[in-house]
Amino acid sequence: MGALLTNYYGTGHVSLDNYIAMISGQPASLDTQLDCPTFSNFKQTGTTGDGIAIGNGCVYPASVKTLPDQLKAHGLTWKGYMEDMGNDPARESVTCGHPALDTADATQKAQAPSAAVPLGDQYATRHNPFVYFHAIIDSPECATNVVALDKLEADLASITTTPNFVFIASRKGIPVHLSGALLPDPS
Questions:
Q1: Which helix (H) or strand (E) holds 141?
Q2: Which residues pair with 79 in a beta bridge?
Q3: Which of 96, 105, 167, 187 could form a disulfide with 80 if both were Cys (CB 3.0 to 4.6 A apart)?
Q4: Spans of all domains in the chain
Q5: d(CA 96, CA 140)
Q6: pLDDT averaged over 10-residue windows placed end to end, the chain, 187 residues
Q7: How far are the Cα atoms of 1, 37, 124, 151, 170 from residue 185, in angstroms, in the given order?
Q8: Phi and psi dihedrals of 50, rounded to 5?
């Protein structure tokens, strides 16, 4: 079971603002419109009546809710699979890969294969929306739920290890599939 999203249109012109909107409903900030070249905290100046955080920056405070928050609240599981994440551990971790706060994002440019990184590294933080929320990166769940794409096959081998919601980002940030929550058959 799954859901195919048709007629989905981007909310912005670059990558990150669209991914942020997909998993949180938050509109673009000035920084997310630029794909956050510096991985900085979102400085919230207010909240709209419908819960939209007002401000600027990249990494939203824990009070900003995400799709994973909603899934967990309903006893459902989620996982993000990121191609090439961790190919160069000097750039990003193999799980929950993101720059340190208030530093330049070294993943803005792909790395060609080399002796040090034989496979190259095309992982881009901006294509991994989960790491832009403190509710996720400040939790141990980030290391278990935001993983390299090579973990997908093993997770799909059993119903008990298959997440209810799967997000896959392939090279160059093109989502392979964004599946809707895989809900139990109500019958």
A1: helix 141-145
A2: 166
A3: 167
A4: 63-178
A5: 9
A6: 75 91 95 97 97 97 97 97 96 97 96 95 96 98 97 95 94 49 40
A7: 9, 42, 35, 26, 29
A8: -100, 15
